[in-house]
Amino acid sequence: RDIDVPLAVRHFYHHAGWAELVAGEFPGMVPHGVCGQIIPWNFPLLMLAWKVAPALAAGNTVVLKPAEYTPLTALLFAEMAQEADLPPGVLNIVTGDGQTGAALVGHPDVDKIAFTGSTAVGRRIRAATAGTGKALTLELGGKSPFIVFADADLDAAVEGVVDAVWFNQGEVCCAGARLLVQESVAEDFAGRLRARASRLRVGDPLDKSTDIGAIVHPVQMARIEGLLARGADEGALLWQPDIPVPEAGCFLRPGLVTGAAPASVLATEEIFGPVAVMMSFRTPDEAVALANNTAYGLAASIWSEGIGQALDVAARVKAGVVWINATNLFDAGAPFGGMRESGFGREGGRAGMRDYLRAAAPETPAHAGPPPPEPAPIPQPARPAPEGIDRTPKLYIGGRQARPDGGHSYSVTGADGAVLGQVPLGNRKDIRNAVEAAHKAAGWSALSGHGRAQVLYFIAENLSARAAEFEGRLAALGQPDPGAEVAATVARTFHYAAWADKFDSRVHATQSRHVTLAMHEPFGVMGLICPEEAPLLGFASLVLPAIAMGNRVVAVPSQGGALAVCDLYQVFDTSDLPGGAVNIVTGAAEELAGVLAGHDDVAALWLAGAAGGGPVRAAVERAAAGNLKPVWVPGIADWTTVQGVAAQGVAAQGAAAQGAAAQGAAAQGEAFLHRATQIKTIWVPYGA
Ligand code: NAI
Questions:
Q1: Is the pLDDT at 657 greater than 90, yes or no?
Q2: pTM to 2 decimal places
Q3: Active site residue 173
Q4: Which of 31, 395, 447, 646 could form a disulfide with 60 if both were Cys (CB 3.0 to 4.6 A apart)?
């Protein structure tokens, strides 16, 4: 009555509109094809609407598997679809349990999987789809912070807690289950919460005066009780009001836990029941540190009457959705989804539609098309660098040239087979050092778009001034058109410099009395595996959009063309690029890709060239299941292509390009900016 039905109705109207607009608003993009969708039991109709409406509006067909506890809603919905004359086969519902879900995930003719459910199953699905080329979005669990500052309207915040964690029995993925309350008001707040909880009614969910209904299933009831018992063993105190509950059935009183240490089970694990865990903090910095002390990043709720304080914390919490002085607000026009181990992809609004579309030519052929290019042979150590004299380029880490940890290098040969030089053979330790340097260079992400643009323009100028040197290097490496490649690299640098302050975030039209911001935020540290083809331009095509959007990167240049990239160190050094914003580790791409994929401090990974195909991709995507980082395979056939520019246009810039539209995914364009950012949706009170 309050959530499922009205929001589902709104969702279908909103997406009916997208069906009208999709061709014009997403030029060059097409539906994936068949979407396999798997949903949980907590909002059976709403979860269905979030999945089915955008998929159909974008032109996909759907096989949906509802949760085993709640299949009937989906079957009733199928009857409505028949009444609406949806053509047979467009929407298919298959009921069943996890095995049915796994069969859907594994089916070779499914082009995209969209899943909502537990993080554990999300990981399994990430691993199962690794290397298949299936598109994937995951909306997983959370342990979302609900932050109350001393200057908050405490009574409003108490009502917020009721909506955040006691509503729907706490069976809400974005439940504000971790109450972080400023110490000076913590006792007062806990007292008000206890008083309020004592007036909640637990019972028949069909009685409209009931606040808390039944837990979905005895299995879930046992799970919650098990977690509470473990919490009690760890010394946490559970308070529950002395209110009546029906004797039969899966009913639980609302709970407030205190005395749980930040690392304890109740403070870290998703309970998915009507239990709030309260902790206190002293300073805003401590609140942010506690809020982000979780592997999840789904939602956050911030309560303060101080606009500066609320918006400052909103910017610093790692969460896909942030509510200010509110909680659990949803709208079809507002992107919803997580960061970190809460998954990737968005549902709702423009970003949600984008996730049901792909570039016109397949990013990577899932079940047909040409075989992926052969990976380059793994370079063998040539010889340890001789003591004293060392003419090999080094790695580029933290703005300094660094010797490889192993002390090995490999030979790069030119077009005529002669050895052109030695390049360091980076290893796991070098990647770890590079990630650490990138992590420390947070100042780059904090710079304004204008500030980043200035650095990129400077890089373009310095590169241009040394064009002849780079052309010579590319010619020696046997590149077909060195002049065009260098010119295209300079042009691409100017292009992303221009974008640095123009890839605007959006304000979405959602509910009255709120502005809903969809902010483009950088991931933080990204890993980039660069293509063999066009060693300089390919490297630039990945690094530039990523850093223009404020990410710090660890890039692995192509093995064969690494020498051309090592020549860039001096360009970076003389262009005011802060140390650590771009880190370069040369070596065996597939090995280094695996290390980046498994690193918990790397938030997103792009695989280009040979690494994007076949077994390397499969291994990398499996390793990425660890912290659930998104992996993107741009699937570029020609690195000179530019979105929306026909052949002559690029040729005028010095590159022999094909029209990108005819070739599919372009090597320069907005897709790179979208993949270099994640959306944080922030709901701010506005107007009367
Ligand atoms: P679950 O993740 O196992 O189930 C969600 C859906 O995935 C169901 O449709 C299920 O049949 C399907 N599924 C299960 N195993 C699968 C597999 N290997 N491949 C494909 N599909 C599979 O969640 P479950 O067991 O119902 O609940 C366990 C816990 O997960 C809850 O206590 C809660 O903490 C969390 N959860 C979180 C949700 C969220 O929205 N964040 C939703 C549901 C559960």
A1: no
A2: 0.93
A3: yes
A4: 31
